[in-house]
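Dear Dr. H.,

I hope your travels went smoothly. While you were away I took the liberty of generating a structure for the chain from your last submission, since the lab meeting agenda had it listed for discussion. I wanted you to have the full record in hand beforehand rather than looking at slides cold. The sequence, exactly as received, is reproduced here:
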Amino acid sequence: MSDREEEKPQPDAEEASASSDQTETSNPESSSAALPTSSPQFYELGEGTVIEAGSMMQNAEEISIGRGVFVRSGAWFNICTPVTGERPKLIVGDGCQFNFRVSVSAANRIVLERFSTYGHQTYISDTNHEYRNIGIPVVMQGITDTDGETIVGEGTWVGANCSICGPLRIGRGSVIGANSVVTRNIPDYSVAVGAPARVVKMFDTDAADWIAVRRSEEIETVLRRRREHPVMTICIPTYNRATDLARCLGTIFHQIGECTLIEVLVSDNASPDQTQDVLKSYAEAYPNANFRYWRNEENIGAERNILKLMDEARGDYVMLHGDDDFFVDMTIMPLFNIVHRNRNSSVIFIDVLNNSHAVETFEGLDAFIRKASIHSGFISSIIIERDLYRQIEDKSLFIGSGFNHIYLQLEAVRRKPQFTVVNESVFAYAGNKPDGYNFAKYFIEGYLSILSHNRQFGLSEEAIKHEKGSMLATTVLPWYKRIVEEELGSDLTGFEEIYTAHYKDEPYYEQILEWIRGIQPSQPKDSQ
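The corresponding predicted structure, in token form, is as follows:
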């Protein structure tokens, strides 16, 4: 917080006001009237937005309103400095809601981030009136500054009859109690009440819950703990993919901003390209984010690079993430919420092949193999409890298999049997060719060796036998066919021999071997 003065204890009644007399959220479809079509042109006006009749949009050419916004009647949105139309001075994010008679007046820049909600008769401004010129009426003295900005974070709830007098920033996910007057910065995930508004509650990562805070020292302690002990760390191993990495980080920081509850780590495996420039640019763009990165002096291999990241992670849960996988918008924070609500789980597996949006809980090694299968080798699907990872005696036991990270997940599940499956397609992909490894050595030999190792820890013969057939049908054979037909360049040396070594006793062995031998590269159209 910008104000370091000691926080005075607030009476319980004030804290209670944060949860009472709040905005009445509304369904835009219930609106009986919208802004007339003859209204002035906005800088931008998103689809599905409803602005009820009786609202005033002053100098709308410098007002940008996103999609699905709902503005009740009596609203007054105003640009109070000379208008050129070159840029928006008032930016309203997607999904924001404004109750009756909300007033917003922008001199330079007000950003109301998406899904923030405002109670009736709330007033927001990025400047104040000058008053210090003795002998001149205040109304003639103008405003104090025209270069500040007021930002209200994503998902924040502002109660009824509040005043937000900037320049200042209110963090994401915060609650401003009814009748409060905000004159200074409010951190993310805080409850603030009173006039002037003071922070009385914050989400604390050590407690994994909201706790009361009264003094500035307590607030600073919570902020420090968030940075040192975040809820989740996103770990990104990268090598020589600067363009993909830039897009990957863009999809992350667009959604989390500088929220320190989520740490982002990147380990550059001695890339010869512009990877370090990309990382530096994001560090400069988000200086207050919980973001760390480094460059290894030499390439230590992908699997050891993953371990290095997990060793450095400070989050309660560690999410591995590929540098060429890109989060779909509005997926990280819901996933973060799932992680927080499923702290009894050792592993959270994201099944990107099932988009039912169901969140399911299971127990045991057999269940994990049946639910996650070889798809748990897709690193962007993996979230592991950090403390369980640190209990693993030999974290590098299956380095060289291509799937050491599957071994780590099974080690976590055997120590703490409960795990969670999130069925959602949360990524877009660069589509880079799978090369740099022997396909059969990883997808058959390496994976099955990890399953065999877990016999001693209770993984049943039935589960292994079922998985041998399942992973062959769902992953190995379809990818083999694609690699051959599309000539993707993956190393298929010894594929038949490795397949035979592991499947010769299976009843379908001969039939599959014949199918394998029948796969041929597709012929170019002009040669057919």
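Two observations you may find useful: Residues 1-33 have pLDDT under 50 and may be disordered. Residues 437-519 form one domain.

With kind regards,
E. W.
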